[in-house]
Amino acid sequence: MLKAAPLLALVLTTTLASCASRGDEERFAYVEEPVEKLYGEGAEQLERKRYEEAIAYFAEVERQHPYSAWARRAMLMTAYAQYRTNDYEDSIASIERFLAIHPGNKDAAYAYYLKAMNFYERIRDVGRDQDITRNALTALEDVIRRYPESEYARDARLKIDLTRDHLAGKEMDVGRWYLREGQLVAALGRFNTVIEQYQTTSQVPEALHRSVEAYLQLGIVPEAKRYAALLGHNFPDSAWYRDTYRLFESRDLQLVAESPKARPELPSATPAAKDEETPEVSAALAPPTR
């Protein structure tokens, strides 16, 4: 009996190994399908918003037909499906793989735009870190620089305005905190960043008013008047200019009107032209089907 134990163990081991081998063969069996069928199944699952199933089919297109034009399309479709499931980092990785292999492809403009959208969709409120927002701005600008006449560039221009306004809002949020804490020089640094770098955003009037507040608290009245004049010249109908006027009155200071030529102006900036036919987000992000 003692001699039979090793033999029994050997038989069991061999049997289990044989079963495992057959199981693996069944599980990982390579069943070649026509590329059109695989891609069509993926596209259908994508249309039905079954994104995980779509990704699996597109992966099979690449695995079975890696050198076909269908495989190239499948890469982008995979990136789009990952974007729709909020797998932003995976989507970006798929896009970068596509661009590394097919940098001059006709769908590259779409790829760069989709990459930008993977950042844009994650823009956070101004109270949080803005690294994603800066990445979104860089990616959107990349679309415009590379493909200025494309439909994606037109939509990117609109989103750049919103992204820059968000970054300016972050500067204002920090600047207001410094102002409340009495760190006036630091506050002025933030407000000046808005005035100089984000002069086409909606944050500028408040930045000018807060600068007036800071300079008055520092006792530097001439600079306060200079920023007040700048605010009044560029935004005479804004609520922030009215607040500035009342602030001077409360301190028994006169806000003397100056001639237009004597008044300072905001740094000149030429905002990107917008096209009246800017496509809707959903249309711009439709996956390529060519």
From TrEMBL:
Pfam families: YfiO. Transmembrane segments: none annotated. CDD domains: BamD. Residues 259-290 are annotated as: Disordered. Residues 1-20 form the signal peptide. It is a lipid-anchor. Residues 33-226 form the Outer membrane lipoprotein BamD-like domain. GO terms for cellular component: Bam protein complex. One of its GO terms (biological process) is protein insertion into membrane. It is found in: Cell outer membrane. Keywords: Cell outer membrane, Lipoprotein, Membrane, Palmitate, Signal. It comes from the Bacteria. Part of the Bam complex. Belongs to the BamD family. Part of the outer membrane protein assembly complex, which is involved in assembly and insertion of beta-barrel proteins into the outer membrane. This is Outer membrane protein assembly factor BamD. The gene is bamD.
